[in-house]
Epoxyqueuosine reductase
Amino acid sequence: MSSHSSDSLKAAIRGWGRELGFGAVGFAGIEQPAAEARLLDWLAKGYHGDMDYMARHGTKRARPAELVPGTRSVISVRLDYLPASHAAETILARPERAYISRYALGRDYHKVLRNRLQKLAERIEAEVGPFGYRVFTDSAPVLEVELAAQASLGWRGKHTLLIDRRAGSWFFLGEIYCDLELAPDPPEANHCGSCQACLDICPTRAIVAPYEVDARRCISYLTIELAGSIPTELRPLMGNRIYGCDDCLLACPWNRFAQPTRESDFAPRNGLDTATLIELFAWSGTEFEARLAGSPIRRIGFDRWLRNLAVALGNAPASPAAQAALAARRDHASALVREHVEWALARQAAGAK
């Protein structure tokens, strides 16, 4: 076992993290009583919608030592993902184009981040000897924003995402739960002030109050997490957003400091940053599987992909091409797809009058 002090080991870990491409590395403790209370209140209000997994693990989310026995510290990391040329506002302003959340344009971040975290853990092990640890992306019951805020990687914004003064919010978070004694970093102060740009910009008013999101209204939830029918009253508000939504990030003034990622894995693939709705709606199930191999989008499945595109086509300017594309899916095997296609065709017909 290495004779590193807590401070010297923390400095070394930060250095190794930078070598691995992380934008920042911080350290948090394992006590989260305030976060646990907020989580339970959020669940009690039903804001998690159909995300049953949010309730299934209960308080384990806020108690790292219950999730991974022996945990004494949490190493929190940031990995930037914003593509150098993302043209988000341009695509949103062109309703015939498909808007995909910028994080999903490239390779699935889960694999990239998990592999990088594993390398960091192995580098620590090479220095200090065997130690207990487990790496996490967002695929486990972990309050990653809370931990990152406690680790001084930023503060929780009014949109509930983490904000860093030097990097904005265009980044992924990951954690290493470990049994090393690493002193927590002092948390950063909140710098949102009186700004509420994120609340004002949200298309569906999902940010129901500062620091509180009703996921049932969030476009990211509707296009990714929701398995069934999208509420009809929310469909017109979705515009051309077919996978996720970045509006609150685009509105946040701190994001003017965000730097483009250096990770080639997060560069746009398959023309997803410029594709038209009609072009993507024409993909076969086989094309969907092949083109989106290694993409986070693939996890929603082909039917939900078509559902989301149908809604966007219903919101697009009326045109014979859009109507023909929708009509071609009118007899799709999935009732979910057929329902949204019919809604879109009715919208197209009304817009053509």
User: Anything to note?
Assistant: Residues 48 and 294 are 27 Å apart (CA to CA). The chain has a mean pLDDT of 94. Strands lie at 24-28, 73-80, 99-100, 133-136, 155-156, 162-163, 171-178, 207-209, 212-213, 241-243. The longest strand covers residues 73-80.
